[in-house]
Each structure stands twice: as C-alpha cells, then as structure tokens.
C-alpha cells in the first residue's frame, strides 16, 4: 500500500518539466495585443470589498497595514535584501487563487479544478526560463531558503560535505550555518574573503581540494563584488562537486545583464523572488545546460530530481497566488524599463560608495560592483546596531550587518549594509546619492553611542533629517502606490496593545 502510494506520487512528480509550448505573453513593454476579457470587474470589486471589510470589521489590523504602507512611502529604505513589488504583483497575491488547493505539477495534479492554475504555473515557468535563459525552472519553492533545501536535500545525504561562503564573509544561513538545518544535517566547510574583502579563488580551490565537498555553493547576502561563476564551476569540476549558484541578491542584475549569469555554469541556480526581482515572497530553482545530466540516484535527470524534490519530497501544496505574482514580476523583469532600473541600481550603488568614501567611511572591499555597499563602522567607533537605530529614527532604513572578521555578534555587528534596489525603483540613481550620503553622514556624525546598543542623538538633527527624507520621498513616490493622505504619526511602528478578537461573533440565525 505505502509503496503503491509512493509510486503514484513519483509518477505524478516525475512528469517531465513543462514549459515552452505556451508562448509567454510579455505584457509590459511589448507591442500591445488585445486586452483580455475583464470578467466584468469581479476581481476589482472583490479586492475593494475586502479592503472595505477589513477597514470596518478589523480596524486594528487594517490600521497596521495602512501604517506599513505609509512607513514605506515616507522612509528611505536602503535594505539591500528588499525591493518594491509593483501593485500588479500585490494584486496577484489577493485573488481567488488563494482558495485553489493542489499538489503536483501542471498537467499532473492530485486534484480537479486545476485547468486555470495549470496555465498560470506554465506561464510562470516559461517566463522564468526566458528571463534567465534557463532550460528548466521550478516556480514552486516557498522561499529562497526552501529552494536551497530542495536542491541540497535531493542531491545529498546526511553528513555529506557542503562548502559555502562563511556567514561573516557575507554568506547566507542556508549555505551550511550551524544555526540552520543546512549546517546541522550536512558537514559544512567554508571559504572566506581575503584582506581586500574579495573571494579569493585560489583559496576556494584549496579548501575544495582539501575537503572534496559534494556541493559547492557560490552566492552571498552581503558581498559587494562580482562573483566569478565560471571559475567556481572549474573548481567544482576539479573537486568532483556539484555547483549551486544562489543569486538571491543579484537575480535582477543577472536577468538584466548587469552581472554575469551562472545559469550554464552552475548545475543548479536558486533565487528568492522578493529581492531584486521585485516579486512576492518565494523562490525559484533554475537550471541551464546540465538540466539533463543524470541524477545521482539513478532515476532520471538532475531536473527530474529537482522536480521530485520540490514536491513531494520537500514541500506540499504550491502557493498558486505567489506563482501568479512571480509570473507578473518576471514579466516586468523582462521589460526594457527593468533594464533601466537595473542600470540605476548599479550606478546608484557605485555613486553611494564613492560619496561615502569621500566622507571618510571605510567600505568592505573598498567599493561595489552590484547593489550593496557594506560599511565598516569600527573606525568611527560605532556599532552596526547603533547606526541602524539612529538612522531609522531619522527615516533612513538600513540593516546592521557583520563584516569579515567581525568580533561582534549578529545582533550588534560592526557594519551596516546599504542597498539601492528600492531607491532605483523610485527613480533614484547616481544624481540623488550625494544628498543621500549627506543625510547618512549627518546622522552618523551626530550620534553619540552610550554603549554597544544605545545612543544619544540631538532632536534637532532628527527633525532636520526627517524633514529632508520626507521631501526626497515626496519627490520620488513609490510608483503605482497611492500616497498616504496624512503623514505618519511620530509613534508609528510602536503599537502597544491590540484587542485579540476584533470581530463580533455573528449571531446564530434564528
Ligand atoms: C535572502 C537569501 C536567501 C533566503 O531567501 P528567503 O526567501 O528569505 O528564504 C537565500 N540565499 C541568499 C544568498 C539570500 O541572500
């Protein structure tokens, strides 16, 4: 019995990766076709009714959502791991697709009623393949972390060696940190960066040849420089490892040709979709020329291994709303307008790096090739957490980040990480960076640390920087987002108590 279920499951999830036969529609920036039948405006009416219902029936929650909308509109967000999703992406997450339960893949589902969502998933797959020039795409991973786990757990056995960039050199928790299942279940070894803050390929090769990992991971969360995926592949081949390229942070630059693509160098490429792809929470697994290499378990190809691994091995039902949102985001990434955004991301980061250096800041690796500017605050006698908090008080949102060799914990740190994704979406590029750097510098030169985590900052500086931030935000509103009517109250984000059950229980009908 159990065995036959297992066979049924694998028959479904062994279905060959689909895509290709459905010409992807490129709605933005492509010559216009016929607009689809609008379904009588049912989507719009339902969405509006939902907002209205929330506002009147659950004002506490509605207020929080509205405050978050305002906070984003009225702050300069430079969190490198974030971006801004278009309202079309938001809309995909809020339709009746949320009610559709299924398992499996398009054309091979465990449930009826999937004709429409099959088309949605096929479009997402086609777009992912086209945007990245990939031969295979799996759009079901619930996150970038899940995408990594899908690859790692399908390919490896407990105790196998994986090799990734050390956490404090800019690596990611899911690449073998002891704090994550990836480092608990596998034997993890790491490589770092050299004194210049760069990944040293000779060091990567030395560690790989010494430890002979089964999986070599190239990819980072806080690495401001270009990654040489071709060199990583040469080392993987020499050491007998598979190569996983995790482009979560740079996927938009890769798609736009602003960073070399790993697709045909790596056996597997993973990404989260909410960072540079300006999409929903979620992940992708992509494969290039090695998609049809044999799987190590002798059952089919590497892509069929991933197909089985996403479902049923690692995940259950896919989030069809998120898959629709990924499809929508990917269409924008394919448009000429996005290439412009990607260029602005890189040029803006380069300009920000230059302006901060001019004002005396020390940058890890001395500068940037991508969207990240990582500042070492130790020479200024500040911790990352003090800088993060002081900047936030003034309307500038960044994140504290460990730097290579950081003696401080992840909750304190010696660095802050700036990123330009969100600013670029708001139309800000190199021209705006001198002003942004001035504001950052105004805060960081006025802040007086009391201890590692607390500080004093004179209210005059706070008021003045907040005013200037508000003016910049007003000049660069978030495209497509309604501007909040009233400014954010000073206590925004400091919600104290909220009633637990805001809805009145409906009376039983008599
Ligand atoms: C952000 C990130 C992830 C994790 O993505 P989630 O979707 O947040 O799970 C994985 N790898 C790298 C390199 C990242 O930067």
From TrEMBL:
Homodimer. Residues 19-29 have a biased composition (Low complexity). Its cofactor is pyridoxal 5'-phosphate. (6S)-5,6,7,8-tetrahydrofolate binds at residues 167, 171-173. One of its GO terms (cellular component) is cytosol. The modification N6-(pyridoxal phosphate)lysine is found at residue 275. Residues 1-41 are annotated as: Disordered. InterPro entries: PyrdxlP-dep_Trfase, PyrdxlP-dep_Trfase_major, PyrdxlP-dep_Trfase_small, Ser_HO-MeTrfase, Ser_HO-MeTrfase-like, SHMT-like_dom. GO terms for biological process: glycine biosynthetic process from serine; methylation; tetrahydrofolate interconversion. Its EC number is 2.1.2.1. This is Probable serine hydroxymethyltransferase. The gene is glyA. HAMAP family: SHMT (MF_00051). Catalyzes the reversible interconversion of serine and glycine with tetrahydrofolate (THF) serving as the one-carbon carrier. This reaction serves as the major source of one-carbon groups required for the biosynthesis of purines, thymidylate, methionine, and other important biomolecules. It catalyses: (6R)-5,10-methylene-5,6,7,8-tetrahydrofolate + glycine + H2O = (6S)-5,6,7,8-tetrahydrofolate + L-serine. It is an enzyme of class 2 (transferase). It comes from Longimicrobium terrae. Its main location: cytoplasm. Belongs to the SHMT family. It comes from the Bacteria. It is found in: Cytoplasm. Pathway: One-carbon metabolism; tetrahydrofolate interconversion. Keywords: Cytoplasm, Methyltransferase, One-carbon metabolism, Pyridoxal phosphate, Transferase. Residues 55-439 form the Serine hydroxymethyltransferase-like domain. Pfam families: SHMT. GO terms for molecular function: glycine hydroxymethyltransferase activity; methyltransferase activity; pyridoxal phosphate binding.
